[in-house]
Amino acid sequence: MFRSLNIAATGMAAQEMHLEGVSHNIANANTVGFKKQRADFQDLLYQTVRAPGAPTGPTTMSPTGLQIGNGVRVIGMVKLFEQGTIYTTKNPLDVAIEGQGFFVVQQPDGTPAYTRNGGLRLDADGRIVNAEGFPLDPPISIPPEAVGVSIAANGTVSASVNGQPAPVELGQLSIATFVNPAGLNAAGHNLYLPTAASGEAQLGEPGSDGRGTLLQGALEKANVDIVEEMIGLISAQRAYEINSKVITTADEMLRAASQMR
Questions:
Q1: Burial of 219 from C-beta contacts in 10 A (0-12 / 13-18 / 19+)
Q2: How far apart are CA 208 and CA 204, in angstroms?
Q3: How far apart are CA 18 and CA 34, in angstroms?
Q4: What does the pLDDT look like over 54-75, one tens digit per residue?
Q5: Residue-wise pLDDT tens digits, 102-154
Q6: Entry pTM
Q7: 245, 252, 237, 103: which is closest to 174 by C-alpha?
Q8: What is each CA distance from 10 to 66, 169, 252, in whole angstroms?
Q9: How many CA atoms lie within 13 A of 252 on its CB side?
């Protein structure tokens, strides 16, 4: 059987996965804080018929060798943590990160998770939580009598309280950074979890040590460029079609060979 049949099949499978990544990006084009992903490809092992530099005579050697490829595979889906567009919402609990870093929230089991989605809310106890109801870590509560909540660029949360001449400081938002954010595990729900590849979270005040600053009353859009994704969609489709054409051509050649008398 022709090797090209298997090679083309690996190409079709790789383009299917590429298409899945593109479709995931497009589907999340309006997801706050979403970071697009990119498929990375890698060629498969080669069959070495003659190694480069193999001797071809007493004093001569092969300048190139003869290695036959076996196709392609997707080696990974890389998250690209480029800054998304910031848009104004005028909601005092909406916060965007301008630069690097993640908000820290506490999951029900007590472990931290990380997110770029700054669409925050208040729960029944007055705690600032995310859309899933997970409180910020460290927790910050807004008293019922507080008005005019303010979140500074450095993460300081304060509010005016009746009977107090000056705004009262309620807490401090922390920002987490990672040596390799692309190594984070995407857990869904706009949350990321640390892995051995990402390294441990480095917590600190917004604006310090390369961390981004905060912008109140705004959110970060997904960093998905629809035009770029459409180009990727067309590229994946055409590559898939070409690989299917290779299978058709190999089939025709096999049929011709089988009909020889």
A1: buried
A2: 7
A3: 18
A4: 888 888 888 888 888 999 999 9
A5: 999 999 999 999 999 999 999 999 999 999 999 999 999 998 888 889 999 99
A6: 0.87
A7: 103
A8: 21, 59, 19
A9: 6
